[in-house]
Design brief:
about 30% helix; 15 strands; globular; nine-stranded mixed β-sheet; D-amino Acid Aminotransferase, Chain A, domain 1; D-amino Acid Aminotransferase, Chain A, domain 2; alpha+beta
């Protein structure tokens, strides 16, 4: 973590940042967050992440007590003060201090600056392993602070030598615990549309893919998943990450598929071009 955080409108040292025990984030797991990162030292698509943060707050009837402009200015100040070359930016809004253990109070809002841990570079060439797990996130269209399921099954994931878990429900695949999933069949890029978080990276990949391939947003049945030619996942810190296998089904035997390679390259070009022009007034 960085040395400086923002807590309720003030930049403070991390050792001086505290929340009280009656906050609903602690008592009931009630709160939302969003997470973006820098590229070449500049926040990548910050406005889009802020839009999603404010939308998540509205969906659970919480009000962020600061404007988007104030939050953006604070982020740039934190990045300068912390001096981490490539940073993760975690924005959290809690349910606030409750008088009865259930009703929300005035929300607490804080921003943490973190060092980013990207996947091992070899994973982008060889792919990663996922395991299936039956689960559908509650209020899946928002970024809740509730990660009870993936953290509680972390040993199961480790024992399977897997990178993460792929959720499915009613015979349909949904999303990875912190990322979106795509399959490729006959040069068509397909990704789930319902009961998922519509990631910022996901949206970008869909846009890039439409200029080169046919794209479909729809239900994907587990049987169709196993028949895919290629599988990859997307996320803020994952970028375009190839999937080598799911459970015991192998998708990458010798080399990455053409579509995955193309989208990896296109996304890297997008990152570099976007970060080259981003600044305090960037519009995402």
């Amino acid at each position: 973590m960085g040395e400086y955080f923002l807590l309720n409108g003030k930049i403070v040292k991390n050792r001086d940042a505290f929340l009280g025990l009656t906050d609903l984030a602690l008592l009931r797991g009630f709160g939302i967050f969003d997470f973006c990162r820098t590229q070449n030292g500049k926040p990548l698509l910050l406005d889009k992440y802020l839009d999603r943060l404010f939308n998540s707050a509205q969906c659970i009837d919480l009000k962020i007590p600061y404007s988007k402009e104030f939050i953006k200015e604070s982020i740039y100040q934190l990045l300068e003060k912390n001096g981490i070359i490539e940073s993760g930016i975690r924005m959290v809004l809690t349910g606030g201090y409750t008088e009865n253990g259930y009703a929300p109070g005035d929300p607490n809002f804080f921003i943490l600056i973190e060092k980013i841990n990207f996947p091992d570079p070899s994973y982008y060439d060889k792919g990663i392993k996922l395991i299936l797990h039956e689960h559908q996130r509650e209020l899946s269209h928002i970024k809740s602070i509730n990660y009870l399921t993936p953290i509680s099954i972390r040993k199961k994931i480790e024992e399977a030598n897997a990178f993460d878990v792929l959720y499915h429900s009613k015979d349909r695949i949904l999303e990875v615990s912190r990322s979106n999933i795509f399959i490729v069949k006959n040069n068509t890029v397909i990704t789930p549309r319902e009961n998922i978080l519509r990631g910022i990276t996901r949206t970008t990949i869909i846009s890039l893919a439409k200029g080169n391939f046919k794209v479909e947003e729809r239900d994907i049945h587990i049987e169709e998943l196993y028949q895919a030619d290629e599988v990859f996942m997307t996320g803020t810190t994952k970028r375009v990450l190839p999937v080598r296998e799911i459970d015991d089904h192998i998708f990458i035997k010798d080399s990455l598929g053409k579509v995955t390679r193309t989208l990896k390259s296109l996304y890297q070009e997008f990152e570099n071009s976007t970060s080259a022009i981003a600044g305090p007034g960037d519009q995402g």
